[in-house]
Amino acid sequence: MAEPLLAHFYDAATSTFTHVVGCPLTGRAAVIDPVLDFDPRSACTSGESAERVLAFLADERLTLEWVLETHVHADHLSAAEYLRSRRGGRIAIGAEVRAVQRVFVDLFGLRGRVAADGSQFDRLWRDGERFALGSLDVRVLATPGHTCDSVTYLIGRHAFVGDTIFRASYGTARCDFPGGDADALYGSISRLYALPADTVLHFCHDYPPVGHEPVESQTVAEERARNVHVTAATSREQFTTLRRSRAAALPVPALLIPAVQVNLAAGRLPVPDSDGRSYLRMPLNSLRAGS
User: Fold this and answer.
1) Are 50 and 20 in contact (CB under 8 A)?
2) Coil, helix or strand for 50?
3) What is the number of alpha carbons within 13 Å of residue 157 lying toward its C-beta?
4) Is residue 247 scored above 90 in pLDDT?
């Protein structure tokens, strides 16, 4: 298999990486975890981040075939629909998105407004499924724990891991969202650690110290040896105890309320009311730090 064409775009406002993977032989491309800009003060969206991705696709003469989500994000709004509406392609996510939808449709009072059957997405991936991106072979690995719908996209020696794991000095994802589970996360990280040592793990997020550049990826070997939450020598009990103890101190993500409502629907904004405006719903006294 040919080495894929790769590009990575970092959104500093949400500390998010968007990845572009292209087939050098056919020009077919996928965008993984795109960001729709959102100003929480004005509740206005914009496509500035997505337009950078679109410009790259145009410059490289790439055809957008897939917009791939690693999970329903709680820290940024997805630009999946923004990209699809401008360049075509299909939107896909893990099959367990339906379980996530059921929880949050109830939490946000969206029953009857948002379907909880995954129908907003063109494809729902199951563990072990494979698909072609031009001449590239893509394998889907279920990697639950952060959320129950989390998946990793494995393309040759490149693995796009979503929020499952971060750079070694930062650790691993939180597991305190509905459907999150520290034990499941340990199993998912163990699955990643079983990949060849030179496999490159591409992150969805990095939170660099002031004055440092964000770290987009590290190898399996680096993570096995140095991850501050789980190395190859860390036991399941040690990890789950650590991860659960940290949950109580974690704040609710700043953009969870708008992000989840949009991302449940594959990046589509809520259906406008009779006045032509789209509205988000805010459940009072229902979310708390460490919940």
Assistant:
1) no
2) helix
3) 12
4) no
Mean per-residue pLDDT, 136-148 = 98
pLDDT in tens, 259-270: 999 999 999 999
| 90-94 sheet: strands from edge to edge | 5-11, 16-22, 28-32, 63-68, 90-94, 123-125
Show Cβ contacts of residue 216 under 8 Å, excluding neighbours closer than 6 positions. 8, 10, 17, 202, 203, 206
Residues 201-229: tens digit of each pLDDT = 999 999 999 999 999 999 999 999 999 99
Contacts of 15 (CB under 8 A, 6+ apart): 75, 205, 206, 207, 214
In the chain the domains, ranked by start, together with CATH numbers, are: 5-263 (3.60.15.10)
Helix (H) or strand (E) holding 65: strand 63-68
DSSP letter (8 states) at residue 180: -
Q: How far is CA 130 from CA 10, 63, 97, 242, in A?
A: 27, 20, 18, 34
Torsion angle, alpha carbons of 250, 9, 155, 147, to 10: 20
Q: What angle do CA 149, 153, 154 make, to 5 degrees?
A: 140
The model carries a pTM of 0.97
Q: Which residues is 231 bridged to in the sheet?
A: none
Mean pLDDT of 88-98: 98
Q: Is 191 exposed, middle or buried (0-12, 13-18, 19+ CB in 10 A)?
A: middle
The alpha carbon dihedral of 240, 246, 252, 258 has a sign of negative
Are the beta carbons of 255 and 77 closer than 8 angstroms?
yes
∠16-260-268 over CA atoms, to 5°? 90
